[in-house]
Amino acid sequence: MIELKRQNRGKAPTKWGILLRGLAPRYKKILANNPIFKKYSNDDRFILSVFSIEDSNIKVSHLQRPFINPESKEVSTFANVINQYKVFNWNCAYCRTPIKSRIDNYKASNFTCTKCFNYYIKDTKTYNQRIVDSSVEFTTYCRKLMIENQKKFIKYIKKNEH
Ligand SMILES: [Zn+2]
Question: What's the pTM value of the predicted model, to 2 decimals?
Answer without folding.
Answer: 0.49
